[in-house]
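Explain this record to help learners:
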Amino acid sequence: HHPTPLIGMATTLQSAAAAANERSSHDTGCAEGGPQDEVSSGGSPHGVACTAKADPAVTAYAQWLADSLAENRAREADLAREISAVREAAAVGAAALVELRAAVQSQLESMAKQLGRLEQDLEA
């Protein structure tokens, strides 16, 4: 399986979403141990809750792209199995054809000998 440009794009989008989320956290003071922790742990009620998140459109697109790529990989694996089965069936068919050809060839040779004898009998 070869990496595709889409996989790189999905990784880049997910990284960008994570970086945007991290920047938003730092810009609003929403870091681990920051004001949002004071509010959630019963600290000062005047603390600022962290509401900044990565752009939902970018996050949704990155998730869709990752899901699509996973589905594509699954379809690719299914198709590879089907191709393998078809190749195996073709090999079995080719082997049977070779056997049939050998059987028919011996029959043709036998008939040619019989025809030759009949010709000699008719000439005599």
